[in-house]
């Protein structure tokens, strides 16, 4: 039985159109802070969204990148922001918070591609699309290193300003135990001990290896006459420092 040539032509047209709508390069131009970027492989357009090669894009935005080939997961870090995506998974994680993706990362011809707009905006940058010129313009914003600023004030014994900087660092990433610990020792120096205990407990909750969190909590309990509670904290400090010396350094004065 012979098929009508018109039907065959129509079917081929539909197939070609479908494929072109799934992946189309369309010569997309990407500019970062006004500078044209040459990515290899080139960005592709899928279902109205742009996918871009993982490593060169993260690095162009000033972020470090790690690839877990076993779980097909990419983690990008810049300043106080951590972005985690898993290939073909529509849930990403930004600073510990789950975010739904309309388009997940994909592996295309052996290369890992990630959604451009989502990654750029997750890092705090502005992403604009000009459909007339097929140009994506990204304005990179670097978040001040509030922890470093806080440390500067802390070591100068300017504890009020140190507290302000550490709290800003905490707001940037609520899942990072370090700002909680830093806030705790600053409040301790300001003699706000109840608040300090809360932040030490929070740091320990987020990082069970936060040895210094136990140590400084022990100081407060000892000063309040809770010798048993203080001793437990000192014992935890000694145990963590002995068994996990590397991990114990994450939260330190």
UniProtKB/TrEMBL annotation:
Name of the molecule in the record: Copper amine oxidase-like N-terminal domain-containing protein
Transmembrane segments: none
Keyword Repeat found: yes
Domain Copper amine oxidase-like N-terminal intervals: 32-138
Keywords recorded for this protein, A-Z: Repeat, TPR repeat
Keyword Manganese in annotation: no
TPR repeats: 143-176, 177-210
Database matches in InterPro entries: Cu_amine_oxidase-like_N, Mao_N_sf, TPR-like_helical_dom_sf, TPR_rpt, Ycf3/AcsC/BcsC/TPR_MFPF
Listed Pfam families: Cu_amine_oxidN1, TPR_1
SUPFAM superfamilies: Copper amine oxidase, domain N (SSF55383), TPR-like (SSF48452)
PANTHER family membership: CELLULOSE SYNTHASE OPERON PROTEIN C (PTHR44943), TPR REPEAT-CONTAINING PROTEIN MJ0798 (PTHR44943:SF4)
């Amino acid at each position: 039985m012979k098929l009508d040539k018109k039907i065959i032509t129509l079917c081929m047209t539909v197939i070609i159109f479908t494929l072109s709508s799934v992946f189309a390069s369309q010569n997309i131009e990407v500019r970062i802070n006004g500078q044209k970027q040459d990515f290899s492989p080139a960005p592709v357009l899928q279902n109205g969204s742009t996918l871009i090669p993982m490593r060169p894009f993260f690095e162009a935005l000033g972020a470090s990148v790690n690839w877990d080939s076993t779980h097909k997961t990419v983690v990008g870090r810049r300043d106080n922001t951590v972005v985690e995506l898993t290939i073909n998974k529509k849930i990403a994680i930004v600073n510990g918070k789950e975010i739904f993706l309309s388009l997940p990362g994909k592996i295309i011809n052996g290369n890992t591609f990630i959604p451009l707009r989502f990654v750029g905006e997750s890092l705090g940058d502005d992403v604009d699309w000009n459909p007339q010129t097929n140009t994506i313009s990204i304005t990179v914003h670097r978040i001040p290193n509030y922890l470093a600023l806080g440390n500067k004030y802390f070591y100068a014994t300017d504890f009020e300003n140190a507290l302000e900087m550490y709290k800003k660092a905490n707001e940037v990433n609520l899942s990072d135990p370090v700002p909680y610990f830093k806030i705790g020792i600053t409040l301790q120096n300001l003699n706000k001990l109840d608040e300090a205990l809360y932040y030490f407990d929070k740091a320990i909750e987020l990082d069970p290896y936060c040895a210094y969190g136990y140590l400084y909590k022990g100081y407060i309990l000892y000063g309040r006459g809770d010798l048993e509670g203080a001793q437990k904290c000192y014992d935890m400090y000694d145990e963590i420092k002995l068994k996990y010396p590397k991990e114990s350094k994450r939260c330190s004065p």
